[in-house]
Task: structure prediction
Amino acid sequence: MAERIGVYVCKCGPNIGDKIDVDVIVNDVNSIKNVATAKSHNLLCSEDGIKFLKSEIEKEKLSRVVIAACTPKMYEQKFMKACEEAGLNPYLMQMTNIREQCAWVTPDKTAATEKARSFVIAAINRVLLQEPIEKKEIDIQPDVLVVGGGVAGMEATLTLAQKGRKVYLVDKSPCIGGLGARFEEVYQTMECAPCMLAPEMQDILQKENIETLTHSEIEDVVGSYGNFSVKIRKKARYVSEEACIGCGACFEPCPVEISNEFDEGLSKRKAIYLPFAGALPNVPVIDKDNCKKLKGEECNACEQACPFGAINFGDEDKIIEKQVGAIILATGSMLFDPKSIPTLGYGKFDNVLTGLQLERLNASNGPTSGKILLKNGKEPKSIAFIYCVGRKEKGYCSGVCCMYSVKLAHLLRDKLPDVKIYNFYTDLCLPKKEHQRLYNEAVDKGAKFIRSDGTENVTRVGKNLVVQYKTDSTKKKVSVDMVVLASAVEPDESTEKIAKLLDIPLDEQGFFSEEHVLMKPFGTPLEGVFIAGSCQGPKDIADAVAQGGAAAGRILSKLIPGEKLELEPKVAEIDEDLCSGCSTCITLCPYSATHRDEEKKIAVVDDALCRGCGTCVAACPTGAARAKHFTKEQIFAEIKGVAK
Amino acid sequence: MKDDKLTIVSFLCNWCSYEGADKAGNARLNYPANVRVVRVMCSGRVDPEFVIQAFKEGASGVLILGCHPGDCHYKKGNYKTLRRIYLLKRTLEGFGIEPERVRLDWVAAGEGERFAKVANEMVKTIEKLGPLELSEV
Ligand code: FES
Result:
């Protein structure tokens, strides 16, 4: 049966109607072969216009439709739906943009009309070669993997679990809670962080549909949105999570003492340890690199001390495989190491600390039980904060260091009413509605803020630390007992490895890059993999929580148990007969969506992974790769129309 | 008449450059009507054959616009195009076609001004070169 094309040119009120001679176009194309009808309409996107379009498709028995109107970015979906409702496969409709890319940029009406005509003819040429595409749907796995149990990961986990989803929460550390759990009080409410987080952590550990895997790391991920298969390495803990009740009887007898990384090296821990008091799950872990027994020496002190037989030196790493539909990465961040700026004296002089070290000193579950003490056990009388440590080196403002320093200044004044506090800053970043107030209050409490040029230098003179700084072009110095460095926030060390594993990109700063910086800040370019919290960029708790909730919400709204997932219809396909098996497409695909069928010696496209960019199609030397809806023939037909 | 038409076929990637061209329209910027558009999903879809075909069909210049390096919606399509078009230009030169008739550039979704600027520049370049006489090659 002969093709019947309907061509509809929208006037968009005066927007197109005044700039292009629509009637001329309609008249001209009416006589083109296969054009059954060509008409104009005053506003095709209106309710009336859609009704008109549908009735035309039915009445004129159209087999294809061309719509010349505004940019397809506006109403292509709407017109596709109208076609579908009128019984026409939506991929047999072609839109061409005669508003943004013609009427609005061409003041001369004759020229605009000619250009628009070429666009319409190109669309007619093209639409004749278009093929119906059927929706493809796949079954999905509704369970979700969350990597990282900080505030963002916890929020995501709980949001998903509340809706009944099974969630696997994986954290590389022996406990959950992330950085937040190591703070005593947090801005802007000055709330006690452990108290704030404890109920959430308890909830996570108790909910039946959450499986928490601490001391664990993801090792391999295959599959795609809806159906990922993940391998998780659950590292040997050497303490049975079932038998241990967390009494702590094992710590004391352990003869090994090493620096405790969870207290930023400010305290010692044993080889069998809990990261900090109150860490959850309340099950110690044996550090196999430092445990005498595990190094082959004679010792079983902890085993003897344990009243519940929970110690298991024979424990081994386990590889656990889980099937999930989506993955949320909430792997967090760490602080820039100020050792790389030698003039600040970090690592060289006692009592030069990072902000996080001061957080631990201030924490009641920290090395000094919350007392602010110098190395010699005395209280400091004066403290200098140096801001923006690492900003130049990292090339970005972390946006939270000013606030955590202001907060610490507050807390210090409360604990040590007479302490002198100097804040050396170059720029203050106080962006949120409560931040300015907190800063003002710190000033009211007597903290001094001194604008310097960022060239602070820390030296030791006798027992004192001396901070040299430059303000208003004059060099000055002040002698203090303690120096606190407000270090920049940088991606967690696991970020790069995970990015490689999942084949997702990092941004210039080394954080996970977003699917879209503004509109999809919780997505990644890999569908089904989401990001939340400071693994996407430095963030405070409130923002991390919001992003965790957003990522979970996105999953809840798209990955629904019992429902199928619609795949991108405009994917690539490979003609078996033409494929020479050269594998060019495999090396080029940004999503690893093509693989080699070793038996047939050809390339195969995985529909679930292909996003339809067409890079493989452009490179295929034999023409075996085709891009659905963007085939060479279709594009050639379009070129023919526009090039004239 | 054909001589002063000097059509330029522009392949615009769906995610950035096509939007950039839309923005030029929203801002009512002007550029000559002989700049014609073909939408592709990614600049990486642009097969050198498309360029040749455009010349065969009478175009005097071809513009290929994609997302800025690093911004491709499909991660790296634009880098692939960069290499491909570089090779293509060298080949064209061998056939006596001025490589300036093909321009690959980057226009972000918000860059309406930039789109108009690149379009206007391309028109100037092609006007200087004159129509492409393929039969002479
Ligand atoms: S999507 Fe714009 S260049 Fe790839």
User: Anything to note?
Assistant: The longest helix of chain B spans residues 77-94. The helical segments of chain B are 2-5, 17-26, 48-56, 77-94, 112-129. Chain B has a mean pLDDT of 92. The beta strands of chain B are 8-13, 35-40, 61-66, 102-106.
